[in-house]
Design goal:
Elements: E1 6-7, E2 12-14, E3 26-29, E4 35-38, H1 49-73, H2 80-96, H3 106-122, H4 126-144, H5 151-164, H6 168-178, H7 180-206, H8 208-217, H9 219-223, H10 228-245, H11 271-297, H12 308-333, H13 339-342, H14 346-375, H15 379-404, H16 408-427, H17 431-441, H18 444-447, H19 455-460, H20 466-469, H21 473-476, H22 480-496, H23 505-519
Antiparallel strand pairs: 1-2, 2-3, 3-4
Helix pairs in contact: 1-2, 1-10, 3-4, 4-5, 7-8, 11-14, 12-14, 12-15, 14-15, 15-16
């Protein structure tokens, strides 16, 4: 047999020692390092057995994961089932992409994946599901994408994985059906299956026992499991699974040039303009800060036509908008390396102004706290507290960027990390139970001040509000309408969480609490 001596342009090793006849063979090195025999006269018949086997394994892995998804999710309430599926998906992704994995990143990717699973184990909600998807995408990109370095690369990789890559299944499936090995594998089963069915029908007509067995299978009952929604579920599952079964990334060339983008500042934001603006801004903000010190922090008496509740409520949100506008002005005016940033006069004025903005945010938090003490908690008010803390942290990091002479990219990454950590902590918090417990314990029925607790609102929050609702004096006094609504909520919770698939750590704690309450003697 001639030895291959030359690599052709199309990737085929040709034998120069012997002329290549029209029907002679050549060797091709596949991406996996395997040699495949081919007929150069018919290149379309060329298939690497190793490549075919890998693609076949990936297709079967996708079908197996789709079957698992059907068992876990179709017509079922989701809970711990999402965690189980995520672990199975990541395990299959490791096996089917093992040759492309960077071993040194296995530990950090595993830790990141574990951190993403914890919120979903605690409770499955949109926030915890988002962290789970983020962990899956980041772990996959860390292990198989060598260009996963900058923040833009990471965002691009996640966009490709969840938006672009699912549509590759149709193209890859068509290619798989065109592979001669797979096509021939299907073809060799057509005649045996068809002939076997024909023989089975003949035997059934000749043998009553076989006829009874065929009738017992009840093919109509088997097809009853098929429906349009279930078919669509399978199609969607396969499309979402395929990017992980076959991880591929679009490579982009690194752009040359400065890492920090050049910002063209308008002429009306000259150094003199910025200086005058900061002087006026500091004076104006000083008036607001002084008023807060006197009335908000010093508890001075307000005019008779203004209540503390209205003073607190009206000021909370506009002051946050003011702080955001101030932050935007500082970022534009104090661009890295610009003349304003180097000015020894402007820098102290910026520090004073940002400090006043931080003071405004803290005052806004106090205003909102006063309002909540009177009108109790809601989800939006908790979100406002969190948002205000993030704004304050963002203002502090702006000062840090100017003082440390860091880039805007550094500032964005630091604030993005703060947002992610805040959302992660929020995904572990049971805000429903917090709202119910706070509103009952601070209601007029309990303290004699403020407003009455809105039990109907608490019931609308869901089963996690039940421990707080049970502390309500109206429930303890036996208000039949509220007790009936509470019992209906308990029944709904037990019905929806009856399957183990819907289990979560938070629901398990609630179920244990309800069982303890049910076992206590009445009265």
């Amino acid at each position: 047999m001639p030895v291959p001596t030359r690599l052709a342009n199309d990737g085929w090793w040709l034998c120069e020692s012997t002329p290549v006849a029209p029907h002679s063979s050549a060797l091709r090195i596949t991406q996996r390092g395997c040699f495949a025999m081919t007929n150069p006269a018919h290149p379309e018949s060329t298939v690497s057995p190793a490549r075919t086997n890998v693609l076949t394994i990936r297709l079967w892995a996708a079908v197996g994961l789709a079957t698992l998804a059907d068992w876990l999710f179709y017509n079922e309430y989701a809970g711990i089932s999402v965690v189980i599926f995520a672990i199975a998906l990541s395990g299959c992704a490791l096996l089917t992409n093992f040759a492309a994995i960077e071993r040194r990143r296995l530990l950090p990717a595993g830790l990141f994946m574990t951190a993403g699973l914890i919120p979903a184990i605690e409770d499955l909600n949109p926030l915890s599901l988002g962290f789970l998807l983020l962990a899956l995408g980041v772990a996959a990109a860390m292990l198989t994408n060598s260009g996963f370095d900058s923040l833009a690369d990471r965002a691009r990789a996640l966009q490709e994985l969840y938006i672009v890559a699912p549509f590759r299944l149709a193209r890859d499936g068509i290619k798989a059906l065109d592979l001669p090995v797979i096509s021939s594998g299907i073809a060799v089963w057509i005649v045996p299956v068809v002939m076997s069915c024909l023989f089975l029908l003949l035997f059934a007509s000749a043998n009553p026992l076989i006829e009874s067995w065929v009738s017992a299978t009840n093919l109509a009952r088997l097809t009853a499991y098929l429906s349009l929604p279930r078919i669509l579920f399978w199609v969607l599952a396969l499309f979402l699974i395929w990017p992980f079964v076959w991880l591929r990334w679009h490579r982009t060339r690194a752009k040359s040039g400065p890492s920090e983008p050049v910002v063209n500042v308008p002429e009306f934001l000259s150094t003199a303009t910025i200086l005058r603006s900061l002087v006026l801004f500091n004076l104006l903000f000083a008036v607001q800060t002084l008023l807060d010190i006197v009335y908000l922090w010093g508890n001075a008496a307000l005019p008779s036509n203004i209540s503390y509740a209205s003073y607190a409520h009206r000021g909370a949100y506009p002051l946050i908008v003011t702080a955001l506008l101030a932050a935007g002005f500082v970022l534009v005016a104090m661009r890295p390396g610009g003349p304003a940033e180097q000015s020894k006069v402007i820098r102290p004025l910026v520090y004073v102004w940002v400090a006043q903005n931080v003071m405004l945010v803290i005052s806004s938090i106090l205003r909102l706290d006063i309002y909540v003490q009177i009108y109790l908690l809601t989800y939006w008010r908790i979100a406002a507290f969190i948002w205000m803390l993030l704004v304050a942290a963002g203002l502090v990091t702006i000062i840090a960027r100017i003082a440390l002479k860091r880039s805007n990219g550094w500032l964005i990454r630091l604030n993005l990390l703060a947002v992610l950590l805040t959302l992660y902590a929020s995904s572990l918090m049971n805000f429903t139970a917090l709202i119910a417990d706070y509103n009952i314990s601070h209601s007029r029925e309990v303290t004699g001040q403020g407003v009455n607790a809105d039990i109907n609102y608490l019931l609308s929050l869901g089963p996690q509000a039940l421990p707080g609702i049970n502390k309500s004096p109206e429930i303890r006094e036996g208000n039949w309408m509220l007790v009936g609504s509470r019992d209906s909520l308990i029944e709904r919770f037990r019905r929806e969480r009856a399957s183990w698939r819907a289990w979560s750590l938070r629901d398990w704690r609630l179920r244990r609490y309800l069982d303890e309450q049910a076992s206590r003697p009445a009265g």
